């Protein structure tokens, strides 16, 4: 695919609640990497999971990021509006219908030789006759099959700024979930497809995100390859943890921007965010943009000490 658009970075929050210190730190890093390298910077609202996402939450997240001085290029993309693009991408891929329930997958995955966490391939090589039978069995339960990628590689290698070359397994990932005929649900698009299609659409060649997502990068990069998209460069950054060393969560205390603002001015919160990425004595986004040096970002998880 040819792009006349300039290369870009992005931040892609899921709007299921206010961003906490860890999310804000990743957003700041994504903005810094993009702007320091002269890239465009986009916001993508990952509201593909309609049950867990809300427009109100998306608005609050964008307001919080703007309050910190993080600015972005337009337009903001909302995944709930991108169904046609996902459908067009699905057409280009080698796929098959999958009739398995979660339980089927669990049972098949516990068989000897099954690879943990990987789809055991139950529906990959069915005959047309077997498919018609499985389809009718599902229809009797008012269910539609899911669509999976027929992967032609077992593993894929990505390049990450901090982690170097990273090779991981490629699976027959779900691209579209099975729907329920009774509730007239077409079935939700799967995250792995949406993220790759949207990164391609926005010409994202620099993906900054939490390192909990490193494991999904090879499968996503493989999918990009299958769609004829350029391989993005990855920058997976360590997460923020609580005093016990567990990934920071909202229940850990006053960790969202709005909660923190009840206790201290925004400049102080900003200094704390900047200190967590190795920049001291700054109170604004512009100052941190001048001073941030990616080599000083600790590769350990950052522990947030709450009062
Ligand atoms: N929406 C994902 C999250 O909030 C980010 C995924 C990505 O950056 O690729 O964790």
TrEMBL record:
Motif ('HIGH' region): 13-23
Residues the entry annotates as binding ATP: 250
Keywords: Aminoacyl-tRNA synthetase, ATP-binding, Ligase, Metal-binding, Nucleotide-binding, Protein biosynthesis, Zinc
GO cellular component: cytosol
Gene Ontology terms: biological process: glutamyl-tRNA aminoacylation; tRNA modification
Cofactor note: Binds 1 zinc ion per subunit.
EC number: 6.1.1.-
GO molecular function, one term: zinc ion binding
SUPFAM superfamilies to which the protein is assigned, alphabetical: Nucleotidylyl transferase
Binding site for Zn(2+): 98, 100, 119, 123
Domain Glutamyl/glutaminyl-tRNA synthetase class Ib catalytic: start-end pairs: 10-261
Residues spanned by motif 'KMSKS' region: 247-251
Binding site for L-glutamate: 10-14, 46, 191, 209
InterPro entries: Glu-Q_tRNA(Asp)_Synthase, Glu/Gln-tRNA-synth, Glu/Gln-tRNA-synth_Ib_cat-dom, GluQ/Sye, Rossmann-like_a/b/a_fold
Cofactor(s) annotated in UniProt: Zn(2+)
Top class in the EC scheme: ligase
Entries under HAMAP family matching the protein: Glu_Q_tRNA_synth (MF_01428)
Role played: Catalyzes the tRNA-independent activation of glutamate in presence of ATP and the subsequent transfer of glutamate onto a tRNA(Asp). Glutamate is transferred on the 2-amino-5-(4,5-dihydroxy-2-cyclopenten-1-yl) moiety of the queuosine in the wobble position of the QUC anticodon.
Family (UniProt): Belongs to the class-I aminoacyl-tRNA synthetase family. GluQ subfamily.
Name this protein carries in UniProt: Glutamyl-Q tRNA(Asp) synthetase
Species: Corynebacterium meitnerae
Lineage per the UniProt record: Bacteria, Bacillati, Actinomycetota, Actinomycetes, Mycobacteriales
């Amino acid at each position: 695919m040819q792009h006349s658009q300039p290369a870009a970075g992005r931040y892609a929050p899921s709007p299921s609640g206010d961003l906490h210190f860890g999310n804000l730190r990743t957003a700041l890093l994504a903005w810094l990497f993009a702007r320091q390298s002269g890239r465009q910077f986009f916001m993508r609202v990952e509201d593909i999971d309609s049950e867990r996402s809300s427009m109100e939450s998306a608005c609050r997240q964008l307001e919080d990021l703007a309050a910190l001085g993080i600015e972005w290029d337009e337009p903001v993309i909302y995944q709930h509006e991108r169904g046609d693009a996902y459908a067009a991408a699905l057409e280009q891929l080698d796929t098959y219908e999958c009739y398995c329930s979660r339980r089927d997958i669990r049972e098949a995955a516990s068989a000897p030789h099954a690879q943990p966490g990987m789809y055991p391939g139950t529906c990959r090589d069915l005959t047309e006759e077997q498919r018609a039978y499985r389809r009718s069995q599902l229809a009797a339960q008012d269910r539609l099959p899911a669509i999976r990628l027929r992967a032609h590689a077992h593993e894929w290698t990505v390049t990450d700024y901090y982690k170097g070359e990273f090779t991981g397994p490629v699976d027959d990932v779900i691209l579209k979930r099975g729907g329920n005929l009774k509730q007239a649900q077409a079935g939700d698009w799967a995250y792995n497809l949406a993220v790759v299609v949207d990164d391609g659409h926005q010409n994202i060649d620099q993906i900054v995100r939490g390192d909990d997502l490193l494991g999904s990068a090879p499968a996503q990069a493989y999918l990009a390859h299958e769609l004829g998209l350029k391989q993005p460069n990855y920058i997976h950054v360590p997460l923020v943890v609580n005093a016990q060393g567990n990934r920071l969560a909202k229940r850990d205390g006053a960790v969202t921007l709005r909660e923190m603002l009840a206790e201290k001015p925004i400049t102080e919160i900003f200094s704390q965010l900047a200190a967590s990425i190795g920049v001291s004595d700054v109170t604004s986004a512009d100052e941190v943009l001048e001073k941030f040096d990616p080599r000083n970002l600790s590769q350990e998880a950052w522990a947030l000490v709450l009062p």
